[in-house]
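so my prof wants the structure for this chain in the tokens format not the other one, which i didnt know existed until like an hour ago. anyway here's the sequence
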Amino acid sequence: MTTPRVLWLVCALGWTSACVTAPGYRPPTPLPEGKYVEAGGSVGGHVGDQTAGGLAGAWGRVALFDKVDFLVGAHGGAAAGFDLLSRQPWNQVGFGGYTFGGSLGVRFRYAVFESMYLGVGGYLEYLEHSYIGLPERFGSASVTIPVAERLYDGVWIYVRPTVSVSLSLYKEAQLPFFGSMESPVGVMWQINEWVAIMGEGGYYMPSRGGYASFGTAVYF
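here's what i got, hopefully its the right format
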């Protein structure tokens, strides 16, 4: 691995610090030759300071002119809540809440080098969760600059730096809007021209903890 790649990987891991969305699987890699549509699904889990649960998601991509991606995504999940400090055992474990949301976006994709691709785009997203008690609802606008690099013949690593402005859509909100940054890290293996498998991880703000997710994509 060259020195620039090492520095890029270190920065990618360091940026995985704050997140308000869910696993998105948006590496800016090109689709296989002759393919224009990507569809995928994922399963995973998250662990926070008082919740632990599962996440499931689905996403799609339509590529035009070999440079423009139209993106759509959705996710949902639920968690168990726990209070290990409680003196009443029946209060230690219970229902911890739910989450669901969806997003629409567009992205321009560029080949920086033969083995590295850069994307520039934005998307709108809705997120609802109840991991801290009452349901919280947000509408967000985000700008993202993902980077993907080919490590081996079909194996890519990517990072998805994203800056978002979120509007609170519930009456009990302490702030009308707030800003955030996320940068999940993922690995994708393009098995053949039809199928790819991938994994992604980062910080999941609704549960105030980390997440890991694994998915499969097919191409048409």
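also thought this was worth mentioning. The longest strand covers residues 93-113.
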